[in-house]
Design goal:
The protein has 117 residues and is an alpha+beta fold. It is built from 3 helices and 5 strands; from the N terminus they run E-E-H-E-E-H-E-H. The protein has one domain: Alpha-Beta Complex (Conserved hypothetical protein from pyrococcus furiosus pfu- 392566-001, ParB domain). 32% of the residues lie in helices and 19% in strands. The two termini are 26 Å apart.
């Protein structure tokens, strides 16, 4: 389960999701994640606007997924919406230790799962 930050802790303090060192939960400045050049899913401007409106009201409640080079593996649409909503930080799960082939396979699988959204 997620650890909850105490109000006195800095927002950038990393939070462990599991004892697995390859998964770390962090808050990142909005400009830190990098779009993945291999991401094939394109979100319509209307989808991004709807998500941005939700983020203005509720914040970014679902973490993005990035690798150790700060490149997004999942959450490209949410990242674009967070920028449009003028959020300054986004929650990110950093996944390390994947090969380039595994990263591409994950992108394909994630885009297929999100196909109906």
């Amino acid at each position: 389960m997620f650890e909850r930050s105490k109000p006195t802790e800095p927002q950038s303090a990393e939070k462990r999701l599991t004892t697995d060192e390859s998964l770390v939960y962090e808050m990142w400045p909005i400009g830190r994640p990098k779009p993945n050049p291999h991401n094939a899913r394109v979100h319509s401007p209307d989808q991004i606007s709807q998500l941005a409106a939700s983020m203005r009201e509720f914040g970014c409640t679902r973490p993005l997924l990035a690798d150790e080079t700060d490149t997004l593996l999942a959450g490209h649409g949410a990242w674009l919406a967070a920028q449009q909503a003028e959020l300054t930080e986004v929650p990110v799960i950093v996944r390390t230790g994947l090969s380039e082939q595994q990263k591409r396979a994950y992108l394909i699988a994630d885009n297929q799962e999100a196909g109906g959204i």
